[in-house]
Specification:
CATH class: Mainly Alpha
Helix content: over 70%
CATH architecture: Up-down Bundle
Order of helices and strands: HHHHHHHHHHHHHHHHHHHH
Strand content: under 5%
Structural class: mainly alpha
Number of domains: 1
Distance between the termini: 38 Å
Number of helices: 20
CATH topology: Growth Hormone, Chain: A
Number of strands: 0
Radius of gyration: 21 Å
Length: 426
Amino acid sequence: MDAANLTPKQRRVKQIWGMVALCICGAAVYELPYLSWSYYDAAVEFYRVSNAQMGYLMTMYGLACVISYLPAGWVADKFQARHLIATALVSTGVFGLILTFRPPYAVLVICYVCYGFTTTIPLWSAMMKATRELGDSSEMGRLYGFLEGGRGFVPVLYGAFIIPIFSYLGEGAGGFRAILIYFVILDFICAFFALGAIRKLRPDEEETQGSQTKHKHSFAEYLDMMKNKNLWLLTLLMFCCFMIYESYSYITPYLTNFFGVSESLGAMISLIKSYGLAVFGGIAAGFAADKIHSNPKVIGIGFSLMVIGIATFFVVPAEPKLLGLAAVTILVISLGLFMVRALYFAVIDEIKIPLKYTGMAVGFASVIGCLPQIFIYSITGNLLDAFPGIQGYRYMFAYEFAAALIGAILAFTLYRNIKKENDKKA
C-alpha cells in the first residue's frame, strides 16, 4: 500500500516497525567491527596483536569508512534503503565469518578494510535517510533520538546474552571466537528483518507537488549544498564528537588496568556506557529538541556535559577505591556523548536540506565529520605504547577535552545562526 493512502493508525504501526528494524539492524551491523570496544583485551589476545596493531586495524577500518561516505550518499539517494541495509548486514557477516578462523594479520587488515566498505556504502547514509523518511519535520528529534537510543539499547540485550558465555569460556581467545560467531549469525538474520520492515512514509518534495519526473543528482548540486555555512558547522561539530566517540573504547582498558576491574565487569561497564546511556541520552535528547524546537541547543548542552566529565578525570586519581566516582564520571560523559550523536543528523532537517538531498548531505558531512576514524586509533594506541601507565591516558583525555569544548562552541553558534534565519522569515 502506498504511504499516501495509509490511515494514521497504519502509518504509526509502519513507523514503529520501521524504527525497530533500523535500531536492531543498525546496531547488529556495527558489532563486528567494534568488538574491541567491549572486549579489547580478548580481541588483542585472539588476533595476536599489539595495542598499536589493534589501533592500525581500526585506523584502516576508519579510512575505508571515510572514503566511502560520499559514494554512500549517492547510493542512498538512488536505491531503496531496505535493500541497501540488508546488503550491508550480509556482507559484513561474511567478513566476520572469515575472522573466526583466526587468520594472519594481513588478512585481518583486509577484513577490517572491507568492514569499512560494507558498513558505510550500503548502510550509513541509507540508515539516516530511512529515519528521515519515517516522519515529518516535527518528529525529527524523536526519530533520530529513538534511532540512537534503540541502537544503544539493543546491544545491551545482545551483551546480556553473550557476556555469560564469554565469561564461562574463560574471557580469552575462546570466548572471543564465540562472540564472533554469535554476531555473524545475528547479521544474517537481521538482513531478512530489514527487507520486511523498513518502508518510506514521507514523500519527496516533487511527489508532494505532484511531479512525475524522477530527480537525478548532479555534481553541481553537491557544490551548491557545500555553500551552506550551517552544514559546515554541523560537519565540524560532528568531527569533534567523533574525536571523543572513536577514542572512548579505551575507557575499558583504563578501568581494568588502574581500577582493578575484571574483563567481564569491564565489558559490562563498556556496554552500559557505550550503549545503555544511548537509550536515555538519545531518546531524552530527541524529545527535548522537539520540545524546544532546537536540535543544536541540545547538542551544545551535550558537549558541555562532556567538558565537565572529561575535566574530572584530570583530578580523580586512578585508584581502585575511587571506582565509584570514575563510574559516575563515565556516565556523565556518555550521557553528553549520546545526546550529541542522537541529534546531529536531525539538524539536516532544521537547516532546510531537501529530503531528496538527504543522502548527499549525510555523505558530505560524514567525509569530514568522521575523519577521526582514520587516525584516532593509531594515535591513541601509539600513545599508550609510548607512554605506559597513566600518562598515555592523560594525553588521550587532553585531546578529548579540547574536542568537547570546541564542539560546544560550534553547536551554540549553529543554534544562533538558525535562530537568526528563522527570525528573519517571521
